[in-house]
Specification:
heterotrimer; A alpha/beta (618); B alpha+beta (159); C alpha+beta (239); A: alpha/beta; Glutaredoxin; Rossmann fold; Ubiquitin-like (UB roll); 19 strands; B: alpha+beta; 2 domains; 5-stranded mixed beta sheet; 5 strands; 51% helix; elongated
Chain lengths: 618, 159, 239
């Protein structure tokens, strides 16, 4: 453990010492232990590595490190071997010994663990050459590879807390705020409000104490970059918060984190303890006279708590109901005191801006949106994972170059951004540069950065129903338009998907939407109609097919489809007959099977199990 | 019970603003949140029971009913949804004979759907007592339930 | 003092006053369902929305919570405003088809039920205006009732939907309820009163001999004010 560091100079010498202790040429093994990889059973792989290393008496000669999420979750478990950065993916839990013996000791590459570029069919040896990584600018997220999230020494060794030292010893609070304003760092949590202005308003607000809050209640389904940052590099987030606290004049901070993220909770607690011990948090930080501490509070599972006033209510021990925001949180937020709230990714950008300067930061991105953005690229996409790119990168680059396109050769249909407050973007906008303003222009929004790719087998009415249903369950119930209006929209959408849609339903949905947009109390309600409005805007035909023809073109809506067997493709393998839970699928071996419509419950088991794609859904 | 509740509240220095985490810890201790336990929390934290009840019923993480031996959480995040989680959800309800959020009468299975777990690459995801099962489909979910059901049955026989 | 315009009328108001209060003082009617002078506004019913222009920005705001400002131009009946009000009423009519008060209000505003909204059948008249809960907490001070669950399942109840030990039977919640949802029943003789599923024994006035208040309420007042319980045994008319 690092003992208390009492000055910036001492910090510099500690960083230097730790850096010197890390020989870049020393062979090393890094295993990703982000939640995605852990879900593949990586914990066992880590144990195996440790065991195999000690068996061979190599523990001292080889740096073994577990690291936070690398982002390429599709390919876990992942192992990177230094110094060459050899990249092994889909590593078997029993492969540890072989990797040590062959690659580390003899320099042999294990072919079967290499990534194969689906575009070229070529095997890729080095991590940097994997197309998924190659096209990215991993500024904020990239540090995840270099640190063990449980080790403050790792973070210090790569220059960690240097920005804090610089800020505390060389900059006035106002200068820091000016730097953040000049960098035009916009909030990464949803609205994209300029962070510097918020800091400035909180600093200038009347009332003591002032609070700063880190929003780690990442509720957008399909977004998990904040979790991966907090899990993988908690000190980066903490450092950003301490700098912000100093600039704003706050001595108490809170991190509000989802209880569904146990690893993030654990790692941030460890980081806070280590930072306190090292004199980087708590009383008299780095001997500067500035004191600041952080408390961690776990959320109870409510999407609405991503909204700042609801989050404050939850932090105060109440139900997460937003209040009408005519008084800004910067004036009266948590406990009615001036409060500055930013999300995890926003705080994580701060040390970079202080370290390298606003001009450097503002050099990345588009005119109105600076820096990089981490997206979670998920859904019908070959390379699921976290992707960090400069603002302004086009959707096409993200989906096809980094994401590797749509699986099974299917057709791209839409990409959903902005979570339940966002919208579905059709193919015609694939060349749109992604930033805060461009997405808003076409009826969606950046949100926290979830990108959910859909193919031709996704029904857009069903997707609208899904989001609306999500919002019905997550509405706090305080105001009438959101509590009552969204459920009525859901009911109408349900009718449409069940073949009970009526002429005029689409227009009625639009009318209700307008009333909710204008009438709801908080940002969650105000944006709740977006998924419906955007699907109507771009996929009106699909609504019409459901309502007028009682037909689901994507073959999803159960009441509008039938399952049948394609006689030309069916080989009579009996698989569907075996999996069918109701006995609807029947037939003899090597003869074309049939589905009895009277018995079929359209559960989808036959289609899922058929290896010959012979189940037709219409 | 009182002692345990007091102990948990003490870990948060009796700070009312920690009501949500306190209740989470209490639930972990008692498997669910029985009425008498909530009354104890209310008394020792000096928060009206109506407020405690409001918080408990507002947040999805809390349960007023006992949880089953096997806790099944099906992720309904968007990534899982577009990969067919809806069909699996229906299958789960059909086989278990309960609705999402309920527990089977024999207290064997609690089944819930949850918002995004952030394991989108593995979607659809079914979590069984904290263990992730990725790339879920209808057949796999049936198999998992059968396996757990059989296990349960053998346990009963041993009893 | 600030000058502003409401519905084309020039009006002077104190800084910090809410639009709704200023409008009412000047005889301009803005409909509300969750507003009462004895409790702080929460902005939950959304009926009182108005369109407010400040500088170049025009937006829909909640008049019960939004402070007036210099030069503000308020339209209390713009098309956008009326759209919100119509939706709110249609939604509430579908939620509480049994509420006469809502029907009257809708008729006054010329709003008809939306046929596509299937009326709820649970016979609930509660519109979740929050006035009862806030009165119980802030005015009476016992917090016997509260909210439970969220979204469409949200409702007002006693904890665990059981008899509340802290309820004093004062009936303030029933009194303030704008839709008659909270039922309070008194026996013919007046010796007991039942509210939220609990029956309270009433106290007889020492002077006139009529039942006038729940015994629990008098105990509560005595404890809170320090006035001996014997001194509270006389009803208000006889005091």
């Amino acid at each position: 453990m690092t003992s208390k560091i009492k000055s910036f100079n001492e910090l510099k010498s500690v960083q230097k010492r730790l850096k010197a202790g890390r020989d870049p040429k020393k062979p090393g093994i890094t295993v990703c232990v982000g939640t995605g990889c852990l879900a593949y059973g990586t914990k066992k792989l880590v144990e195996n590595f440790r065991e195999e290393l000690s068996k061979r008496d190599l523990a001292d000669r080889i740096d073994f490190r577990t690291s936070g999420c690398h982002g390429f979750c599709e390919r876990g478990p992942m192992v990177v071997l230094s110094p060459e950065k050899i990249f092994y993916q889909r590593v078997g839990l029993a492969d540890a010994g072989e990797i040590i013996d062959k690659t580390l000791l003899k320099g042999e590459i294990i072919d079967r663990l290499l990534y194969v570029d689906p575009a070229t069919g070529e095997k890729v040896v080095h991590e940097d050459d994997v197309p998924f990584y190659k096209k990215q600018s991993r500024l904020v997220f990239g540090l995840n590879f270099q640190v063990d999230p449980e080790s403050i020494e790792d973070y210090l060794a790569i220059g960690g807390y240097g920005a804090l030292g610089k800020a505390l010893t060389g900059m006035k609070p106002e200068e820091i705020i000016q730097e953040i304003i000049k960098a035009n760092l916009r909030g990464r949590g949803g609205g994209g409000f300029p962070a510097g202005w918020k800091w400035d308003a909180t600093r200038k607000a009347q009332g003591e104490p002032k609070y700063i809050v880190c929003n780690a209640d990442e509720g957008d389904p399909g977004a998990y970059m904040d979790r991966s940052l907090l899990e993988g590099n908690p000190h980066l987030v903490l450092e950003g918060m301490v700098i912000g606290a100093y600039a704003i004049g706050s001595s108490q901070g809170y991190i509000y984190v989802r209880n569904e993220y146990p690893l993030a909770v654990k790692n941030i607690h460890i980081a806070i303890r280590q930072a306190r011990e090292a004199g980087l948090l708590g009383e008299n930080i780095l001997g500067s006279g500035f004191s600041f501490d952080v408390k961690v509070n776990r959320g109870g599972g409510a999407f609405v708590c991503g909204e700042s006033s609801a989050l404050f209510a939850s932090l105060e021990g109440r139900a997460g109901e937003p209040r009408a925001k005519y008084i800004h949180a910067t004036d009266r937020g948590l406990y009615d005191k001036p409060t500055n709230l930013n999300n995890v990714e926003t705080w994580a950008n701060v040390p970079f801006i202080i370290e390298r300067g606003a001009d450097w930061f503002a050099g990345i991105g588009t005119a109105g949106s600076k820096g990089t953005k981490i997206f979670s690229l998920v859904g019908k996409i070959n390379n699921t994972g976290l992707v960090e790119v400069p603002m302004g990168t086009t959707l096409r680059e993200i989906v096809f170059e980094i994401g590797g396109g749509i699986p099974d050769g299917r057709k791209f249909k839409a990409i959903q951004t902005g979570g339940p407050s966002g919208g579905c973007i059709p193919e015609q906008y694939l060349d749109l540069p992604v930033d805060f303003d461009e997405l808003t222009k076409i009826g969606s929004m950046m949100g926290s950065g979830g990108l959910i790719v859909m193919d031709d087998r996704n029904c857009m009415v069903n997707v609208a129903k899904y989001f609306t249903n999500f919002l019905v369950n997550e509405s706090c119930g305080k105001c009438v338009p959101c509590r009552e209006g969204i459920r009525r929209m859901r009911d109408i959408l349900a009718d449409i998907t069940e073949g009970k849609g009526r002429e005029g339903d689409v227009e009625l949905l639009e009318k209700i939407s307008t009333g909710i947009l204008d009438g709801a109390l908080c940002a969650l309600g105000n944006s709740a109609p977006n998924p419906v409005l955007s699907t109507i805007r771009y996929f009106r035909d699909e609504y019409a097919a459901h309502i007028k023809e009682k037909r689901c073109p994507a073959g999803v809506c159960r009441d509008l489809i039938t399952y049948s067997v394609d006689a030309e493709k069916c080989t009579g393998c009996m698989v569907c007959v075996k999996v069918c839970p109701t006995g609807a699928a029947s037939g003899e071996r090597k003869k074309v099977h049939v589905i009895d419509q009277a018995k079929c419950t359209k559960c989808g088991a036959c289609r899922e199990s058929c290896k010959f794609d012979s189940i037709i859904v219409r | 019970m009182e002692e345990k509740v007091k102990e948990i509240i003490q870990q948060y220095s009796g700070d009312k603003s920690y009501l949500v985490p306190i209740l989470q810890d209490v639930q972990r201790e008692f498997n669910y949140l029985p009425k008498d336990v909530l009354c104890a929390v209310s008394a020792h934290l000096s928060v009206p029971i109506s407020r405690v009840y409001e918080v408990v019923t507002f947040y999805k993480a809390f349960s007023l009913k006992p949880k089953g031996r096997y806790q099944l959480s099906l992720c309904m995040g968007t990534a899982c949804h577009v990969r067919g989680a809806e069909l699996i959800a229906r299958n789960m309800e059909d086989i278990l004979g309960i609705k999402e959020g309920d527990t089977t009468a024999d207290l064997e299975f609690s089944y819930e759907t949850v918002g995004c777990l952030g394991a989108c690459a593995l979607g659809p995801v079914l979590v069984v007592n904290g263990e992730y099962h990725g790339h879920m489909n209808i057949a796999k979910s049936t198999k998992i339930l059968k396996k757990l059901g059989k296990k349960g049955a053998t346990d009963d026989e041993q009893d | 003092m600030v000058n502003l315009t409401i519905d084309n009328r020039k009006i002077e108001a104190e800084a910090g006053q809410f639009i709704l209060d200023v409008a009412r003082e000047n005889g301009i009617v803005i409909p509300t369902l969750c507003s009462h002078e004895s409790i702080e506004p929460t902005g939950s019913c959304r009926l009182c929305v108005v369109e407010a222009r400040q500088g170049k920005k025009t937006r829909i705001v909640t008049s019960c919570l939004y402070p007036v400002a210099k030069g503000m131009i308020v339209d209390t009946r713009s098309e956008r405003v009326m759209n919100v009000r119509r939706l709110v009423l249609q939604l509430l009519l579908a939620r509480c088809p049994g509420s006469e008060q809502l029907k009257e209000m809708a008729a006054e505003m010329g709003v008809e039920a939306e046929p596509r909204f299937v009326p709820d059948t649970d016979n609930v008249k509660c519109i979740l205006c929050r006035m009862c809960v806030r009165t119980c907490e802030k005015v009476v001070g016992v917090s016997a009732i509260g909210f439970s669950y969220r979204g469409p399942e949200k409702n007002v109840c006693t904890p665990f939907k059981e008899e509340s030990e802290t309820c004093i039977g004062c009936g303030a919640c029933a009194y303030i309820c704008p839709t008659g949802h909270i039922e309070m029943e008194t026996t013919e003789t007046g010796d007991t009163r039942t509210i939220w599923g609990r029956t309270f024994k009433m106290k007889i006035c020492k002077v006139c001999g009529r039942y006038f208040a729940p015994e629990d309420q008098l105990v509560y007042i005595s404890q809170k004010t320090g006035v001996p319980i014997e001194d509270l045994a006389v009803c208000i008319s006889c005091r």
